[in-house]
Design a protein that fits this description.
two-stranded antiparallel ribbon; 10 helices; 2 strands; about 240 residues; single chain
């Protein structure tokens, strides 16, 4: 009933505007002056806005609540289907334990967590579960006895797109294709003869690195070895790759 009343007011307002235009055109055909009652217009606009908002608020609440409900259902289903994991620190929704980790001292944090939750505990990095092994005995069991179960990198969208659905050596899962690629690389790229063929590239970049460090010493500047070594490694890889191409 409220909507019908608002529509009736709108029709009256539009009718008055059309009547004013028609009347003024008859009296002064060379000019067009429209008179609008701004007080009534403002009152009508506020009335219409309140009516629309009152009708749309339930829809807005539904649109806000629906994604949250869907996300909770997805998380509940994922947790229900997964086997129970080892104990670990309690995380937050969506981000997991990311807010509890500091990359600058990650090894110390994981050591402290192993004292609390044992040599094998679980974390959640966003939506991805992770297991942390901090015991030499368990590490040997995982990496030696069950190496085929943990040797494949977890798939992610970026590497899959960049490597043509994980067809290259680093991101490819352990299968016949990976073994064939590894065989080709060992024979044609990582053989002692091929490595010796690029010794001049490594010597050139090592000489350039020593010159950079020596210039920093002469000027009493601090040398960031991490940046220097990363630059040397990138230069060697790029130069050798360019020769291959």
């Amino acid at each position: 009933m409220r909507i019908l009343t608002d529509l009736f007011h709108l029709l009256i307002f539009l009718g008055s505007v059309i009547y004013n235009i028609h009347t003024l055109n008859k009296t002064e055909p060379d000019s067009l002056i429209i008179y609008i009652d701004y007080d009534y217009t403002l009152e009508f606009s506020n009335l219409l806005a309140r009516s629309v908002l009152s009708k749309m608020l339930p829809l807005v609440y539904i649109l806000i609540a629906l994604p949250a409900v869907v996300l909770l259902l997805i998380l509940f289903k994922a947790n229900k289907n997964n086997p129970p994991r080892p104990p670990g620190p309690r995380g937050l929704p969506i981000i997991g334990n990311l807010h509890q980790l500091d990359a600058s001292k990650l090894n110390l944090q994981l050591g402290q967590l192993s004292k609390t939750y044992g040599p094998l505990f679980s974390l959640r990095i966003g939506f991805k579960p992770a297991l942390v092994v901090s015991s030499p005995k368990l590490a040997k069991e995982v990496l030696k006895d069950h190496d085929l179960d943990v040797c494949t990198r977890p798939p992610s969208l970026g590497p899959l797109k960049l490597t043509y659905n994980a067809l290259e050596l680093i991101f490819s899962p352990y299968n016949d294709h990976w073994r064939e690629i590894r065989k080709i690389c060992v024979v044609h790229f990582f053989s002692s003869k091929r490595i010796s063929a690029f010794s001049h590239v490594r010597k050139s970049e090592a000489k350039r690195m020593l010159q950079i460090v020596s210039s920093h010493v002469d000027s009493s500047k601090t040398t960031n070895l991490t940046e220097v070594l990363m630059a040397v490694s990138s230069a060697i890889i790029c130069r050798q790759g360019w020769i291959y191409l």
